[in-house]
């Protein structure tokens, strides 16, 4: 009697379809939720850049500002995505990660307009 694929899967301990064992994956939310979170995150980054520019009058080194603006949301967002166990945590991580480009873009635009 020929060996069937069901028998081979049972012997191998494979439970998922196609012979792939899925144990630990990042839970992805719906595409519209992920896109919305990233768009809102970029908008929040723009608003945060303008607000921080108006509120902070101290002289700060540009490399420190770039490190804070890109590094902090980048690290927090990637950690949230990689360590997420729920879809909403992945969405929140994408939101936090999307704050960095909006913030950096607005700060660069402010510097260009001001002749910095």
Automatic annotation (TrEMBL):
Keyword field: Membrane, Transmembrane, Transmembrane helix
Keyword Membrane: yes
Domain of life: Bacteria
Residue stretches spanning the membrane: 12-32, 38-57, 64-83, 89-110
Pfam families: Holin_9
Protein name in the entry: Holin
Species: Mycolicibacterium litorale
